[in-house]
Amino acid sequence: MSLISSIAKQPKPRSLRNSFCFSEDNLERLRQIMYFSAAEAGSYLFREGERSNRLLYVQSGNVKATKLMESGKEYIFGLSRAGDFIGQLDPLQESRHFYTAQTMDACEIGVIQNQDLEVLLWQHGDLAVEFAAWMGYMHRLTQTKLRDLLMLSKPGALCSTILRLANTYGVEGNDGTRIAFRLTNSELADYIGCARESVNRMLADLRRAGAISIHDNLITILDKAYLRHISRCELCPAELCRL
């Protein structure tokens, strides 16, 4: 079986981590060259425009990726949780971060220096192939999120974001899929680049349509087919339909 085939056949948990591209052996090799540090809620792991010279691993906690728009509004285009890698590497030139990473709660972060990673990739060809697969996956994930922002209406982008939240934090129940992660309407607005008041109206419309319910600030999806219709869902695999 080829390395790419073995990656594709690895079990993908309900709460998907972007480290699924790596085998357990290679993930352990990466952990061995990490050093860990604690970060308080609201800490900046790196800022947009800073030099990218390390790869980060979320051991615990949640981290949001944000991009400052020309209007000055902050756009949230990703959430990372325990088991996710964060960062960008460019083997051809010195790279700089195109987004900001900020902790949402207390986190433990593993840090891999670029030079240590390069040595490990030279030593283990199978890890190099898996790392290339991870980079390709992260690019595809970014492309699908840009599609939501640029190609969909705001109701469509909101429905797509709710589906992504369900794939990332969803818990199946008798009444539907409950998203076990609280986001304010302002934060949802930052995901799709609109005002909080617009999100309030769109969520109310979805509740009236019977597509979702909201209790204690937690969203439960009652009708996924309705959300997929509004978001012009392309039935992407679960590993791409996540935050």
UniProtKB/TrEMBL annotation:
The keyword Transcription regulation applies. GO terms for molecular function: DNA binding; DNA-binding transcription factor activity. GO terms for cellular component: cytosol. Keywords: Activator, DNA-binding, Transcription, Transcription regulation. It comes from the Bacteria. InterPro entries: cNMP-bd_dom, cNMP-bd_dom_sf, Env_Response_Regulators, HTH_CRP, RmlC-like_jellyroll, Tscrpt_reg_HTH_Crp-type_CS, WH-like_DNA-bd_sf, WH_DNA-bd_sf. The keyword Cell wall biogenesis/degradation does not apply. Pfam families: cNMP_binding, HTH_Crp_2. Residues 27-121 form the Cyclic nucleotide-binding domain. Residues 152-225 form the HTH crp-type domain. This is Crp/Fnr family transcriptional regulator. The lineage of its organism: Bacteria, Bacillati, Bacillota, Bacilli, Bacillales.
